[in-house]
Amino acid sequence: MTNLLDVLKEADLRINFTDNFKTVAAHERLDREEIQKRLILALYGLGTNTGLKRISAGNHGESYQDLLYIKRKFINYATALRLGTAETESILKRFTRNNLKHPTYLALAELGKAIKTIFLCEYLNSEELRMEIHAGLNLLCLW
């Protein structure tokens, strides 16, 4: 768990993707650093299907209620995509309506970059994964 969280933290340090997550509330009451920390933990928990309860059991000092609050206030559209309750294309069209970039759209785009970075790190670190992908690509060539 720590390695992936470290990658997310590093990605946010470099590209500040959590800055694109905006609250649905009228204003933010929490310090932005606290929101950033909770966002990374919540995104990790949701993105890996680990869950917010398991993440809150870690030694980072964030409770389940803290992470649930962040999920409700900052990750509402991402959850709809994850649960399959909304079509990806229609949500992306909604975010880019009138040539304006919606903050959630920008956040999802940045999160996609972080996920790609995590995959590349795992790919470079694991010879077994590289061999599996290479074998799969060779099978595709046979068709």
Descriptive keywords:
single chain; 143 residues; mainly alpha; 2 domains; 8 helices; globular
Plain-language structure description:
This protein has two domains: 1-87, no CATH class; 101-142. Helix content is 71%, strand content 0%. The chain contains eight helices and no strands. It has helices spanning 2-15, 32-47, 52-56, 64-74, 76-83, 88-95, 103-125, 127-142. Helix 1 (2-15) packs across helix 2 (32-47) and helix 2 (32-47) packs across helix 4. It is globular. The chain starts with a helix and ends with a helix.
List the total number of helices.
Answer: 8
Sheet with the most strands, sense and barrel status: none
Strand proportion, as a percent range, falls in under 5%
Q: Over all CA atoms, what is the radius of gyration?
A: 17 Å
> pLDDT average, as an integer?
78
Q: Say what oligomer this is.
A: single chain
Order of helices and strands: HHHHHHHH
- For the record, the count of structural domains works out to 2
* Secondary structure tally: strands: 0
Distance between the termini: 38 Å
Weakly predicted, low-confidence segments: none
Helical content band: over 70%
State the shape.
globular
Q: Return the structural class.
A: mainly alpha
At a glance:
This protein is mostly helical and 143 residues long. The protein has helices spanning 2-15, 32-47, 52-56, 64-74, 76-83, 88-95, 103-125, 127-142.
